[in-house]
Amino acid sequence: MGGKTSKDDVPKGFEKSPDGQFQLIKPSERKCTDCMCVPIYGLFWVGMIVVAVLSATNSNIEMFTRGFSVDGQICGVGENKDFPYLFVPGTILGVPANEDTAKFTLCVKECPKTVKGKYETQLKDKNAADKPTAVILESVYATVAGKLGDLQHCTYNMTTSTTDVTNALRTAVVDVSQSGGAIALGSLVGIVAIVIYMALTYYCAGIIIWFIIFSVLLGFVSMGLMFMYLATDCNSTCVGRYTDEQKSSYQNVGIVFMVLGLLWTAFICCMRSRIQFAIAILKEVSLVLKDVKSMFLLPVVKFILIGGFYIYWIAVMGGLGSSGKFQKVENATYTVTTVDSKTLEFVEEKMAFDDATMNAMYYHIFGLLWTNALFIALMNFMIASATSQWYFASVENGEKQFEGNPTVNALSLGYWTHFGTMVFGSLIVAVAEAARMVIEYMTKQMEKQSPDNKLVKCLACMINCCARCIENCLKYISTQAYIFTAIFGTGFWSSCLKLFQFLSANFARIGTAQSLGRLVVKLGRAFVMVFSMAGTFAIVTYLSPWKETVTNPYLVVLVVGLLSYVMAVVAFEVFGMAMDTLIMCFVADEKMNGTAIHSTTMGSHLDNMSDGGEAVANPVK
Question: What is the mean pLDDT of the chain?
Fold first, then answer.
């Protein structure tokens, strides 16, 4: 067990209580960290505003609001004013059918109402100096006219189809529209499922953990026995089904699974105390969420902020995307054949952008990555901050005593005191994401140039895997570093250093607890979805009025399944981050006070679970 910190060596972010215990200092006494990152991010947003102004001044928004044809004409505007409807014909007589030409769009005067119906469009005639020329073509499917804002378009007419699939889909859509009350009840069932699972993690944490562990063992043993069974030609009904070579392969695979089962058993025996630690952590998480319920609002705040930012980002990117000029595509001349067997040649045109616009797009995309990572960082930090305040709070008469609301304090610390640290960490994550995207783009170009070269494909796969692995490692490090900022009030680099010190001193304990915790989170999400969908199925099947009006409950159940998944993600984001924070709080408490005196569930049976921490410099200094 790690040695107790001396009285004169008070860790940063802590103070000595009258009884000699280390406790967190008041949130109002925290000092700002990584302050220089804040003006840097502010300057970056000045650039984002410049990009927004560039988008607003150079955009041709009618390209999106009205649509445009394959030869670069905007529907319902200028010489195309008599052709307001955007139509995707799929197949054009005379034009080779392939994946690219199937996406061609045309501006038409009226939508074709029947299969093989006639429609009039206008194309630039290559042989007449690109003069827009009206032609009449034949449609391969029936459409109906629709309107979305200023965009008038031709939509596939489902009413002309009599297939069972179409009728079933239409019925399912009607069922959903009539099942609003059932969907609301199903969502309520999802909330109940979350509460039940949270309670189970406290009262049945050991059962859940050991169930997961023995399920893995059972899987290894079952697979091993199955392959060994197949290697013996199973029974008299399948004698001779497999060759000797196949039976030898099955036997080898069976042996591998049995060996994995033995190794897993040895792992269970060696890590028994660490597993008990994980069980205690799960119980502690349940208490945090019971006492600080307002933490569940933090993911909601994140989604609202990200949603608002995405709306802004899409609007600006739309303006940038419409600020280019149409240019002819090389070697993209096509010949259409009209209904009266005449022909017309046209050239496909695509949007091209100058260097300034392209650079603005790259800048704007990086702004998306950075700001998105920042909102996620803020949420993770605030959950960690509220959790650490709960853990280190003093106890009077069996109740935790807080300096204000932990969640409100966390909001203040995240958006003010430690905002610079969140900016710094999210910048590193954004750079890693951008690098991975560039690498994936380059490897795709490599594969396009050598589509049949297996070595190139293998190399591209390895490079992409390495890039994604590095990105995920940086995301893990930054997320865990926010926990140490929440506990000790340190900057990003200092928090990363503390993380590595904690991991080196307690690798087995932290690794086992976090791994099992993530399995519990995944199991919880599945439990909530299955519970919600089963409850909804029962509601629409046995309760009035839905049992009389809903003919096909499966789409209703699917809608509730999606809603319950979103709710489970929100709930278990809080659960997972609180669990990781409590692990680090326990280790820090143990190092500072000689034992985890602030823990409410970790008894003396955990006192001897240190992973050699005394051999490492005290990580709380």
Answer: 84
Average the pLDDT over 419-435 and give the result.
96
Q: Would you state the pLDDT for residue 482?
A: 96
Judged against a pLDDT cut of 60, whether residue 396 lies above it is answered with: yes
Q: What CA–CA distance (Å, rounded) separates 66 from 178?
A: 34
State the Cα–Cα distance between residues 322 and 448, nearest whole angstrom: 28
Q: Is 107 exposed, middle or buried (0-12, 13-18, 19+ CB in 10 A)?
A: buried
Hey, what are 424's tokens?
A: 């710094």
- Alpha-carbon distance of 353 to 493, in angstroms, equals 40
| 609 in Cβ contact with 586 (< 8 Å) | no
Lowest mean pLDDT among 142-146, 258-262, 278-282, 613-617: 613-617
How is residue 525 written in tokens? 């999400």
CA distance linking residue 289 with residue 524, whole number of Å:
15
SS3 of the chain: helix, strand, coil, percent, to 5 = 65, 10, 25
In the block, tokens 């940063």 appear at 12
Q: Which secondary structure element, helix H or strand E, spans residue 24, and what is its range?
A: strand 22-24
- 8 Å CB contact between 201 and 285: yes
Distances (CA, A) of 194 to 208, 289, 523, 553, 564: 15, 12, 12, 23, 9
User: How many C-beta atoms lie closer than 10 Å to residue 371's C-beta?
Assistant: 22
Query: Which value, to the nearest 10 degrees, does the dihedral of the CA atoms of residues 281, 5, 395, 387 take?
Result: -40
Radius of gyration over every alpha carbon of the chain, rounded to an integer in angstroms = 31
Let me know the angle formed at the C-alpha of 41 by 38 and 45, rounded to the nearest 5 degrees. 135
**SS3 (DSSP) at 441:** helix
CB of 536 within 8 A of CB of 557?
yes
Structure token digits, residue 356: 């300034």
> What's the CA gap between 359 and 520, in Å, rounded?
44
What is the tens place of the pLDDT at every residue in 547-557? 777 777 777 88
Q: What is the pTM of this model?
A: 0.82
SS3 of residue 586 by DSSP = helix
Q: How far apart are CA 494 and CA 423, in angstroms?
A: 15
Distance CA 233, CA 466 (A): 42
CB-based contact 176:559 (threshold 8 Å): yes
Q: Are 514 and 612 in contact (CB under 8 A)?
A: no
**Angle at 277 (CA atoms; ends 271, 280), nearest 5 degrees:** 145
Length of the chain: 621
- What six digits make up the tokens of 13? 């972010």
Question: How many Å apart are CA 27 and CA 13, to the nearest integer?
Answer: 9
In the structure encoding, which two tokens stand for residue 477, read together? 């490090």
- Beta-ladder partners of 106: 87
| C-alpha distances in Å from residue 609, one per residue of 29, 506, 606 | 34, 9, 6
> pLDDT tens for residues 563-605?
899 888 888 889 999 999 999 988 888 887 776 666 665 544 3
CB atoms within 10 A of CB 207: 11
105 close to 86: Cβ distance less than 8 angstroms: yes
Top-confidence residue, 393 or 221: 221
Higher pLDDT, 262 or 226: 262
Are 509 and 272 contacting, i.e. CB atoms less than 8 angstroms apart?
no
Give the residue among 146, 120, 131 at the shortest CA–CA distance from 71.
131
Quote the pLDDT of residue 236.
55
pLDDT-derived band at 615, boundaries 50, 70, 90: very low
